[in-house]
Structures are given as C-alpha cells and as structure tokens.
Specification:
Blueprint lengths: L1 E6 L15 H15 L3 E6 L4 H6 L1 H7 L8 E4 L2 E5 L5 H8 L23
Parallel strand pairs: 1-2
Antiparallel strand pairs: 1-3, 3-4
C-alpha cells in the first residue's frame, strides 16, 4: 500500500518550523514516522518545496486546478481518499489495519517507537 500526502505550501517540508507550530502538522508527522518505521510506503509533498510532484500527478493537477482548498489531499494506491483535510488517526489505522493505539496519545504520552542503532 502506498500513501501519498499532497500538502499546501509551507515554510519547510513538514511545516514544523516557525514561531507557532500547528498541532495537526505535529500529529501528521508522528503518524507518518510511525508508518515508515513499520515499513509502509508513505510520502509527503509540500507544494512550495516539491511542485514537480503536483504537476507529475494528473489526478492532483486536475484537483488543484479547481482551487488550492483541496489541499491537503491524501492518495492511497493512486486513488484520492481525502481532500481538504488530513486523515484522522482512526482513518489511517483502518486503512493500514493497525490498532488506533499505534497513533493515539495514551495516558498523556505519545506513541512509542522502538529504534535500533547500528554500530
């Protein structure tokens, strides 16, 4: 399964910079990190830093011709699954067959991801 997220223009690829950070962007960054750590094929494209990705995808190009309010847009295996908003944790968990606990804050703590360091 391949998930692609096409986002509006932001100051950096993830939008996690500047004086005030949108908590929704932090949530999405965490979700994408968790998915990548579990071996899923996920990509995020920012209109400001990767406009070629928007032009190369005919579906995205057709949608943004209607207006940029369709962003963010999520595409799974080449099909648009959501426009104008990010997928919720529940929607992502359902799509990937994962428990919601993989992404949700539990007992005030963020999801834990185990990493290994190679020597």
């Amino acid at each position: 399964m391949k998930l692609e997220l096409f986002e509006p223009a932001m100051c950096c690829p993830t939008g996690l910079c500047g004086p005030s950070i949108d908590p929704e962007l932090t949530r999405i960054a965490t979700v994408h990190y968790v998915l990548k750590q579990r071996g899923f094929d996920v990509s995020r494209y920012n209109l400001a830093s990767e406009p070629n990705r928007f032009v190369e995808n005919a579906n995205v190009q057709a949608e943004i011709a209607k207006g940029l309010d369709v962003l963010p847009m999520t595409i799974v295996d080449g099909k648009i699954v959501k426009r104008g908003a990010y997928l919720t944790n529940e929607e992502i968990a359902s799509l990937f067959g994962l428990p919601i606990e993989a992404f949700a804050v539990q007992d005030g703590e963020k999801p834990k991801v185990r990493i290994t360091l190679k020597k």
